[in-house]
Amino acid sequence: MKRSMLVYSSATGICVGIASVFLFGVGAWVGVVVLVLGAGALGAGLLYRHTTLLVVAAALCACALGIARAELYTNSENNQTLQHYVGEEQVIEGRVVNDPERRETSLHAHLQVEQVGGESAQGKLLAILSRDTQINFGDRVEVKGKIALPESFETDTGRIFDYPGYLRARGMSVLMRYGSVEDVQSGDWSVRKFLFGIKHAFEQSIERALPEPDASLMEGMLLGERRGIPEDLNDALIIAGLIHIVVLSGYNISIVAEQILRLFGLVARKKIALVLGAAAILLFVVMVGGGATAVRAGVMGAIAILARYVNRPAAALRALAFAAAGMIMWNPAALLYDPSFILSVLATFGLITLSPWAEKYVTFVPAQGGLRSIAASTVSVQLFVLPALLYYTGIFSVWALPANLLALPLLPLAMLSGFVTGLLGLISSFLAFPFALLAHLVVEWLVLVASVAAGMPLSSFTIAAFPAWMLALVYIPLTAFAVYQYRSFTK
After folding, report:
1. In a 3-state reduction of DSSP, which class is residue 116?
2. What is the CA radius of gyration of the chain?
């Protein structure tokens, strides 16, 4: 029996188990029944050496595991006490557990609450503070404000954004708008605090070396930070279908890592190049703070490299199933309530399964420098994430494909030059200048492509909102097509 069947059935079982708890309120007793059925199937499969029964047993046992994990997660949510204070103005004491996100008019901090009004409390809260507030990861703070429940809201495209679900995936059920900081005590040293300090120094280095909006766009590409990008440029990136370049994702990392591997491959053996490439991905994750998003992007990027550069799509697909299941077990709410996680998994799956097929149809793109590989990756990823993007945003970008084909071949150069600029800028602005000039020229090209594509006639239009079951109906044949092409290539 192929190991891949056990991996895929187990990953599917975990997803089904977790989803059944969140969507249908399945209890622990159902998990026990499923586990008993799984044990029975396992015994019969071993007794009769029946492959199908063993696969079913793996799926059932994994489903029971998913139910148990989701039950623990929901029980932990139910034990939180912050909901008792909704509607009240209180003084909250807690610890900052994220790198506070400084936006255009506010600062968003995640607080692990320890006391409310002097009484012990448990839970996690989003504190929306004044933009000028100076707090850091690990600091202990006292914040005063009104505790409220998050509410879903309608977007510009008519979509209902599930804001409570978005916060739930981040472990929060309540928020405090217009909070004020009463007291701050610097937190103790920690590895994550040290990494975030490196990240901030790196950001300041880029901001010294590049003018705006180049610096903000570069921080978006390297760090996933979109806070400083002008609204008109952000809108142009969305309309042109290029907004993903300023979202820290495995797709972006894989494109850059593949070019780094090709560069190392010119001067070193393949195994050494792979080690150096892996070190480059690890360094990148460390430099951007080592947060959950960065780690996920690094893992997805490494899996994509396994499929594309090492040419082992079967191993990459198993690694994707294993990694996705592991991330869901770590944070079960991400399965249904974290669009960035869902899109990241879909993009990586599309890249692994459809890139070889797409490469047959982009022969007009030169193969030199990996341009054809990038073009094929672009087509495959765009094709597989499009339905999900339409579901979440409703914006169909007419010129997305040509815009991506014009922009993405230079994305590795943009990110690499920006990364070197930030590193050397920590030492000397003079050393960083040549790379900053190169980064500026490439970023200006990306801005030009986005602006022209967004300004074209009928550049985009809005798709009417559709239910989740319709999205599932679209992905069933699309996934079947992708798997068929994948199997044709791996035979």
Report:
1. strand
2. 24
pTM (two decimals): 0.86
Helix pair 214-223, 191-209: axis angle to 10 deg: 150
Mapped onto helix, strand or coil, the DSSP state of residue 58 is helix
Give CA separation, 388 vs 279, 318, 392, 429, in Å. Answer: 32, 22, 6, 43
CA-based nearest residue to 61, from 1, 3, 14: 14
Tokens describing residue 471: 């999205």
- CB-based contact 356:491 (threshold 8 Å): no
371 Cβ contact partners less than 8 Å away, ≥ 6 residues apart:
365, 409
Instruction: Report residue 185 as tokens.
Output: 């005590």
- Residue 33 Cα to chain centre, angstroms: 34
Closest CA to 320 of 339, 284, 347: 347
**Percent of the chain scoring above 70 in pLDDT:** 91
**Nearest one of 23, 12, 25 to 66, comparing CA atoms:** 12
Amino acid found at 467:
P
44 within 8 A of 77, measured Cβ to Cβ? no
Backbone angles phi, psi at 114, to 5 degrees: -115, -35
pLDDT, residue 52, reads 86
**Domains of the chain (ranges, CATH numbers):** 3-78 (no CATH), 82-188 (2.40.50.140), 199-490 (no CATH)
Q: Following DSSP, what letter does each residue of 217-277 receive, concatenated?
A: HHHHHHH---TTS-HHHHHHHHHTT-GGGGS--HHHHHHHHHHHHHHHHTTS-HHHHHHHH
CA distance 237 to 95: 36
- Scanning the structure block, which residue is given the tokens 């000028």? 132
The pLDDT of residue 291 is above 70: no
Residues 6+ positions from 455 with CB-CB distance below 8 Å: 236
Tell me the DSSP string of 385-410: HHHHHHHHT-EEETTHHHHHHHHGGG
Please tell me whether residue 479 adopts helix, strand or coil conformation. Answer: helix
SS3 label, residue 204: helix
In the predicted model, what is the mean pLDDT of residues 204-223? 89
